[in-house]
Write a structure and sequence with these properties.
- With about 150 residues, this protein is of the alpha+beta class.
- It has a domain of about 70 residues: SH3 type barrels, CATH 2.30.30.830.
- Helices cover about 30% and strands about 25% of the residues.
- The strands form two sheets. A three-stranded antiparallel β-sheet has the order 1-2-3, with no helix packed on it.
- The two termini are about 50 Å apart.
- About 10% of the residues are buried.
Length: about 150
């Protein structure tokens, strides 16, 4: 005589934790301690920083100012701009990371520039609708998609 199982029996069996419930062990991720970065000794001055789609740094070399983007090389020093931050730039020079801080006379204007940038962003957000706003799909399209998704594509 053969016994048949119905769906309820199978469901009850699958819900049993015969060997205990699996609990993955979370291993703590050890964060590396930040390495102190020395201020660069190159004869350059960071005059300004511009943020946007492509951030840039205004760097003065030999009395001439030029805008550099991340990844570009400073003209006469063969130093590469690795990272552009709010008040400093990280350079890779001779295989080492060095910090180029904003010149003292330029630091006082950073706060004013940041406030202006925030107000400009606020104006832009009000003027332009959000690109990720939900789109209403017509009822007929939704019903057709529910019946046969391949038909739409």
């Amino acid at each position: 005589m053969q016994k048949t199982f119905d769906k309820n029996d199978v469901q009850l069996i699958s819900q049993q934790n015969w060997f205990g419930k699996y609990q993955p062990v979370a291993t703590p991720v050890k964060q590396p301690e930040p390495v102190p970065v020395a201020e660069t000794r190159l004869n350059v001055v960071l005059r300004g920083i511009a943020f946007g789609a492509r951030p840039g740094a205004v760097i003065e070399e030999g009395g001439k100012q030029q805008v550099y983007l991340q990844g570009e090389t400073l003209g006469s020093h063969n130093a590469v701009i690795e990272e552009i931050n709010r008040d400093h730039v990280m350079l890779r020079y001779q295989g080492k990371i060095e910090r180029l801080s904003l010149a003292e006379e330029e630091r006082s204007t950073v706060a004013v520039t940041n406030k202006k940038a925030v107000s400009d962003e606020a104006k832009q957000a009000v003027a332009e609708p959000a690109a990720s706003a939900p789109v209403e799909i017509p009822t007929a399209v939704r019903q057709a998609l529910a019946k046969d998704p391949q038909k739409i594509f």
